[in-house]
C-alpha cells in the first residue's frame, strides 16, 4: 500500500515483531473447547497477530477459495455470493471459525451437510455435526451477501468506484467481502466467478479461465490464480472497463484494466509497465506471477494497493497535473516491487510489514535515482533526520505500534516506508552492494509463494555477509533511537517533535 499524497510527495508505513504467545492462547482455547463436555459458547478466535490479534483462526489451513459474486448493476446494493473453502484440519475442533463481518449469511454446508452457524464479533462460527480432527478435509460452502456499502467505522473491503466496484482489503478487510481465514500467513489458491449485467466488465486476480454469456445479456467472468495468495491481496474489479493487453519481458502477459472513457489519456502511463518489470527483473530476478497490470479506479481511496497480479491505482494519480512524472513512475514501481516483496513473499505477521513497505520504498527510490537523477543518498539523509520522530510516533520498524482505534490502516506510517528503506540503506552500507544485491535475489527466490519473518531476513542477511548481523538488526529494527549510519558518521537525527 502507498498513501497518495494530497499535496507534495510524502508517505507513511509501520512494522513489528512476531509474538506467539497470543497464538498459543488461542490454540489452548480451542483445545479447551474440545475437552469440555458441555457445549461452550461460540467465541471469536484469532491467531494472535501482534497488531490484529483477532484476525485469522486456529485449527485449519485453507488450500483454496472458490468465490462466486453476482453483481446487480448498482454499487449500493449487496452482491449475492457463494464462497467455497477447501481446507485441511490441523487441530481438533468442535467448531470452525471463519472471519466474516459484513454480509448476511443464508446457509452453510460442511462436507455437503447443512451446518449450524452463528456470528460473533467478526467471526462466523460453524458447528459441524461432529468434531473434526487433524488430517481431515473441510469443504465449506457459505451462501451469503457481500455488502459494498461500508459499515460505520469500517475501512476497506469493497471500494465503490464511479462505474462499479474494486477491492482494497489490506490489512484486515477481506472478511468484510467474503468469509475467509483472513491472515496473510494462510495463503491459498483463488478462483473467482463474477456475474455482471451487460455493458460491464469483470476482472480478478490471475488469468481468465472462461466467460459465459447468459440469456438477457449478463456475463459470468471467471479467473484463477496460478500462485497462492493472501486474502488481503484479492482483487475483483467490476465496471465500464476496457482490458488492454501487451507483452512484458519473455512474453509475460501484461493486462491493464481502465475506465473505457480514459483509455487514451492513460496510455502514456500504461505503456511504461513492461520497462518497469524489466528493470525490477534486473534487480531481483524473474517476475514471480503469471501476469501483471494496472487497475485504474475512479475512486478516492487515498492510496495505491499491490493487489496480486493487478495493482489498484487511483485515477487521479495519473490525471492530476501536480504530480511530477518521475514521482508517478516511482509509485508505479513501488506497487510493482510489492509483487515480489509482500505478495510472492508475504509477511508471517503484520509486524513484518516493514519487509513489504521498506522494500517497495527502496525500489521506488532506486528507480527515481537511476531514471530521474534523484539521489537515493539525499532521500535517505532526509529520512535519517526524521527517523527518531517516526520511531517515537509509530514504534521501531519491526515492532510497530498497533493501529489507532477505528483506523486500521493507520499501521501504514512513515516508519515502515522511508523509515524502513533507511534500514535497508544502512544494511547496504554495512555489508556492501554485492552482498546486499545477492541477499535481495536470494530472499525473493527462497521464500517465493510463501511467508517469511523478520528473523528469516536477519538470518539470510547474516549468511550473505558471512557474519552475525543480529546486533546490527536489533539496533536498527527494534531500537527507539536510530543507530549511527554506517559510512555517514555526520548524519544527524532531529529530536522527536514535541520533546
Ligand atoms: Zn506499499
UniProtKB/TrEMBL annotation:
EC number: 3.4.11.2
The keyword Metal-binding belongs to this UniProt entry's keyword annotation: yes
One GO BP: proteolysis
Recorded superkingdom: Bacteria
Ranges for domain Peptidase M1 membrane alanine aminopeptidase: 274-476
Family: Belongs to the peptidase M1 family.
Protein name (Swiss-Prot/TrEMBL): Aminopeptidase N
Species lineage: Bacteria, Bacillati, Actinomycetota, Actinomycetes, Kitasatosporales
